[in-house]
Design goal:
Keywords: Hydrolase. InterPro entries: 6-blade_b-propeller_TolB-like (IPR011042), Isochorismatase-like_dom (IPR000868), Isochorismatase-like_sf (IPR036380), SGL (IPR013658), SMP-30/CGR1_Lactonase (IPR051262). It comes from Roseomonas fluvialis. The protein has 519 residues and is of the alpha+beta class. It has 8 helices and 34 strands. The protein is 15% helix and 33% strand. The strands form 8 sheets. Strands 28, 29, 30, 31, 32, 33 and 34 form a 7-stranded parallel β-sheet that branches. It has a 5-stranded antiparallel β-sheet with strand order 1-24-23-22-21, with no helix packed on it. It is elongated, with a radius of gyration of 26 Å. The chain starts with a strand and ends with a helix. About 3% of the residues have low confidence.
């Protein structure tokens, strides 16, 4: 569907004809989308259904029921989930192990209305809005209100759980404060009001208070289209994206309306996601939609979480856990010419290093475990014609392949090594390049199987394995490299790849750790 550009600057942010993909549907009322920066999935609330759901390449599944009718979600800098709970009138922190802590529930001895949306500052302070939608039927639990107004609150950095929050806007300013977001430099905070159909902007004082509030945008309503201000985010350039009638309204930092991103259902909230943060996810009524955009989000603290909070290798933190239903195993280039004595490339030292790594037995053990668990096993074989008319000799590697008379389909050298032959039910992918993605059916197979975590093994570590891992990471897949299931010409080349390049694009571990992690 076509989007509306009211100012030429809009086209720098999103193409007017960018597709709107329905990523999931059949829900009650979606809200609170938030993207996990390392595990690459979207978490969102299905508020009236009292469910929290996860959207990834495998589809949508429940992760919490009940969810206390949670609405807005975000992460703190340690990747703990922060949730606005309508049913409990609480703002809570949920740690990765499931521990739930109430951060705020009362103000001056009275229960909060129903925390609605939330954002975290660089210093760890947490700001949230508190309209009373969560005390209405359908969206929450119907019950009397204890506060006679609707405010905007701040939890100071390092506050004790349950400590009274600070009121940062005069209590009668907003009728139904809803979405809120910082500018990229955190000098400004934007707060919208659903009932007033406007956005206010405040200066953020040194003590965290919001001062000098003024109307930033007003009249965010349409007599012919449903929708009002609700969720709101700021992009990396300081533009403000706010839900409204017909979709998402985009305002320049000076308040000009640049354009509107059209969404098929009335939208409630939005967030960026994807491996490059260039997918806009919009929660809209019964569905979640995804729109490719040209600009990313403001760099929030959770997007730059410290390494300890991320998926560290299994020997650097908690034991590795892998969801077998999302995994696929790749066995790449384990062919006679590549790693066996007598093969075309044997003079390089590759057979010796393959033995030192115990790569063939390790991969065979891992493949057997994957087959037993229903994890797809995908063999990627480098194959070429004898006359080399299907090869381009643009690089020394490809020239060497032809000069060595290697990898010719139908010859012993191109056959898989003993012990790693394709079994019934396995997939076989042909390639003529280093990367398993280039010109192959790999991604089609992964999508058909619904797999988003790739366990990659094979040869050579610093060439095919590294190239495939880099591209897989760029495409949004979680790449897992059991380093003793890979080999190359010598230990120095292997370690250089494993210890440097791979650490930036993959989770590096061992065969035994992966087998244990699969359960």
């Amino acid at each position: 569907m076509a989007h509306t550009a009211l100012d030429p600057a809009f086209r720098r942010l999103v193409d007017e004809h960018a597709p709107v993909h329905q990523a999931g549907s059949g829900f009650t009322f979606t809200e609170g989308p938030i993207w996990h920066p390392t595990d690459h999935y979207l978490l969102f609330s299905d508020m009236p259904a009292d469910v929290r759901r996860r959207l990834d390449r495998a589809g949508v599944r429940e992760v919490a029921r009940p969810s206390n009718k949670a609405n807005g979600l975000t992460y703190d800098a340690d990747l703990n989930l922060i949730a606005c709970e309508h049913a409990t009138s609480s703002l809570v922190r949920i740690r990765p192990d499931g521990t739930r802590e109430v951060l705020a529930s009362h103000y001056q001895g009275r229960e909060l209305n129903s925390p609605n949306d939330v954002c975290v500052a660089a210093d760890g302070a947490i700001y949230f809005t508190d309209p009373w939608y969560g005390r209405m039927p359908h969206y929450g639990v119907e019950r009397p209100r204890q506060l006679g107004w609707q405010g905007v609150f701040r939890i100071r950095p390092h506050a004790r759980p349950g400590e009274e929050p600070q009121l940062v806007v005069e209590r009668y300013t907003h009728s139904q404060p809803n979405g809120l977001c910082f500018s990229p430099d955190e000098r400004l905070m934007y707060v919208n009001d659903t009932e007033q159909a406007n956005i206010r902007v405040y200066q953020v004082a040194a003590d965290g208070a919001l001062t000098n509030g003024r109307i930033f945008a007003s009249g965010i309503r349409d007599a012919l289209l449903p929708g009002l201000p609700d969720g709101m985010k700021c992009d990396a350039e300081g533009n403000v994206w706010c839900t409204g009638p017909g979709g998402v309204w985009v305002f320049a930092p000076d308040g000009r309306l640049l354009g509107k991103v059209s969404i098929p259902e009335p939208p409630a909230n939005l967030h960026w996601g994807g491996a490059d943060w260039r997918t806009l996810y919009v929660c809209a009524s019964t569905s979640v939609y995804a729109v490719p955009v040209k600009v990313g989000p403001r760099n929030e603290p959770f997007m730059r979480a410290p390494p300890a909070a991320r998926n560290a290798p299994a020997n650097e933190g908690d034991p590795l856990r892998l969801d077998a239903s999302r995994c696929a195993l790749i066995i790449q280039d384990m062919q006679n010419d590549v790693v066996m004595d007598g093969g075309a490339f044997a003079p390089s030292g590759s057979p010796d290093h393959c033995r030192q790594q115990n790569a063939i037995p390790n991969i065979a053990r891992l493949a057997a475990r994957c087959r037993a668990l229903g994890v797809p096993v995908i063999h990627v074989w480098f194959l070429r014609r004898a006359d080399a008319r299907d090869m381009t000799l643009n690089a020394p590697l490809f020239e060497g392949c032809v000069d060595a008379n290697a990898m010719i389909e139908g010859t012993w050298g191109a056959e898989p090594v003993p012990g790693l032959e394709a079994q019934p039910g396995d997939h076989v992918v042909r390639k003529a390049r280093m990367s398993a993605w280039e010109g192959t059916s790999l991604e089609r197979i992964l999508k058909a199987e619904g797999r988003s975590i790739i366990i990659e093994t094979g040869a050579w570590t610093n060439m095919s394995i590294e190239h495939t891992a880099r591209t897989g990471a760029d495409k949004g897949y979680v790449m897992v490299i059991p380093e003793d299931g890979c080999s190359t010409m010598n230990a120095d080349w292997h370690r250089a790849s494993i210890d440097y390049a791979m650490r930036n694009v993959a989770l590096v571990t061992t065969t035994d750790e992966v087998i244990a992690a699969l359960g």
